[in-house]
What does this fold into?
Amino acid sequence: MKGKVYLVGAGPGDYKLITLKGLQTIEEADVVVYDRLVGKELLKYAKSGCEFIYVGKESSNHTKTQDEINDIICDKALEGLVVTRLKGGDPYVFGRGGEEGEYLVDRGVEVEVVPGITSAIGGLAYGGIPITHRDHASSFHVITGHLKDEDSELDWPTLAKLKGTLVFLMGMAQLDKIANSLIANGMEASTPAAIVNWASTKKQRAVTGTLETIYKTALDNAIGSPGIIVVGSVVNLREKLNFFENKPLFGKKILVTRAREQASSLTEKIHDLGGEAVEFPTISIKDISPQTDIVEQIKNLKDYSWLIFTSQNGVRIFFENLFKAGFDVRQLSHIKIAVIGKVTADELMKYSLKPDIIPAKYIAESIYEEILPLLKPEDKILIPRAKEARDYLTDQLKKHCVVQEVKIYETIIGEGIQDKDEIVEMLENNEIDYVTFTSSSTVKNLIKILGDKKELLKKSKLVSIGPVTSETIRDNGFLVSSEAEVYDIPGMIEVLGG
Ligand code: SAH
It folds into this structure.
C-alpha cells in the first residue's frame, strides 16, 4: 500500500476557479485536508466515504499548528491513503506549501503539486484590477505582510522605488504600516491603492483610495482579513473592469426550496450570476410503494395509445418500474407521448424517446389544448404522476376518451426542515433577497415548516416558476414579486436577472 499527497491550489475563493487536474485529485482522494480560504462547494466532488479534515484558523476553534498539519497529512499518506491537501490560491504562494512538500518528501511520501490561481492575480481580477497593463505596470511584485521573524523588516527603500504593481498578501493587520513605510521611503502619497476583501466569493467587497487614504477608508468600511492590498495605477482600471460585482445577482442571497437532488441546476446558475444560493429543500420525492398499480398498467401498455408525463420524476420512476418488470422501451413503440416541460422531455430523451407533444406553456391547461385535436374516442391515455397533482387534466381528458391515472410518487416534507432555525434567522435579519418556488408543494411545505414564523416571508421577494405556483402563493396570503415567463428553471433565472 502506497499513499500519496496532492498539494493542490483551490484558487482564490470561487470554487469554479480550481483546475481540472485539481478537481480530479478531489474525486480521487480518500482524505481531503483543507483551509479556511478554500471554496467549500469543492468538497461535494469527493467520493462517498472520503474523510474531510479542516485545518483552517477559526477564532472559536483550536488552531492547528503547522507541525500538527504536517503530521496529519503525513500519517494519512503513510497509512496508504490518497490525501488531497487543498490550499487557497496557489499552494506555493505564501501557503507554506513548500514546507509541507519538503516535510513529506523527507519522510518518503510521494508528493504531486497541482498549481492554482493565486489570489494575488485572480483575486485582484475579480476585484476588477489587472495586475499588469501596458499603460500602467510592466512588472508586479507579490509581498508578504506577515514575516516569519517578527523583528525582520521588509526592504522598504527598495520596495518604494519599484515601478510595478505591488501586491501585499497577509497584510491587513499591517496596512497602516505598509502605506506609511512606502510613503516615508519616497513613494508618492497619491499613488492609487485598493483592497479586495474576500475576493471572488459572495462576500467580496473592495475599497479604493491612495496610499495616504487607504488605511482610513478600510477602517471606515470595516474591511478586514482576508484582503489583498494592491498599490499602483492599475487600481484605476477597476471602474471599467469590475465584472464580478456587476453581475446581476452579485450580493444577493436566494433561497432554493426544491428537492435536494433537483436543486443543483438552479443553485449553479445563481452562482454563475454572482449570487449566493441557500439550499433549503422543502420537499423530497418519495416513490409510492409497492408500485403494483403501475406495474399492472405497464404490462397492459399494448392497450394504451397515449402516455402523458407531467414531470421529470414521473419519467424516472415510470422507467425504473418498466425495467424492473422486465421490459424495455420497445414496450412503448406504438405509443404517443406528451410531456410538460423541457426538463421532462430531456429526461425522456435519456431513454432515446422523443415526445410527440411539448406544449408551448408548461402547464396542464396547455397540454390539454394541444392534445385535444389529436384525440379519438377509442384512445386510452396513461398518466403516471404525483399523488398531489391537480385533477384538471384527468377530468378534462375523461370527457373525450379513457384515462387511467396512476400515482407513482409523492412529495413529502424535505430534509431542509433540520435547518429551520438558521433560515428563520436569515429571514429575520433581512438577509434573504429572494425565495424561489418551483412548484406548489414547495410553497405549501415552506409555509408548513415555518409555522408561526411564516409572515417572515413578507420580508423577501417571492419568485414563482409559473401561474399555478403563483396562485398557491397568493392563496396563502403572500404577494408574488415575479413569475417566470417560461415555466421552468431557465425561465426563473431569466426573471431573477439572468
Ligand atoms: N496561497 C494563497 C495565499 C495564502 S496567504 C494564494 O495564492 O492566494 C493568505 C493571504 O492570501 C490572505 O491573508 C490574503 O491576503 C490573501 N487571500 C487569499 N485568498 C483571498 C481572498 N479570497 N480574498 C482576499 N485575500 C485573499
Q: What stands out?
A: The first helix runs from residue 20 to 28. The CA atoms of residues 24 and 45 lie 9 Å apart.
